[in-house]
Write a structure and sequence with these properties.
Oligomer: single chain
Largest sheet: none
Structural class: mainly alpha
Distance between the termini: 57 Å
Radius of gyration: 23 Å
Shape: elongated
Order of helices and strands: HH
Helix content: 55-70%
Number of strands: 0
Number of helices: 2
Length: 97
């Protein structure tokens, strides 16, 4: 007879940290797609967008990606400091850190 598999329990903190790491890994892919998007915009005299709009779009996407990476990095750092406080600290042996 087959047993039902036990549900896998993951702590909320480690699960959230893994999802944030996954999001950080996907940021370059998102950036590539967003930066490549203006190539697909129509061009030409009848329906094209001006170059200034494309430059503003690229600058805006750059700022968005920087902001997203900052938010993800801060959340990851906060999670690391929470878990680091749980372990006992060892005194420095007189060396440089």
């Amino acid at each position: 007879m087959s047993r039902k598999p036990q549900p896998l329990f993951l702590e909320r903190r480690s699960y959230r940290q893994r999802r944030l790491i996954d999001a950080a890994r996907l940021l370059p892919v998102l950036g590539s797609v967003l930066f490549g998007l203006p190539v697909l915009w129509p061009s030409g005299p009848e329906g094209g967008l001006p170059t200034s709009s494309a430059i503003l779009y690229l600058f805006g996407m750059w700022i968005l990606l920087v902001w997203l990476s900052l938010v993800i990095a801060r959340h990851l750092r906060d999670d690391d400091s929470d878990t680091a406080g749980d372990s006992p600290s060892q005194p420095d042996a007189g060396g440089w850190r």
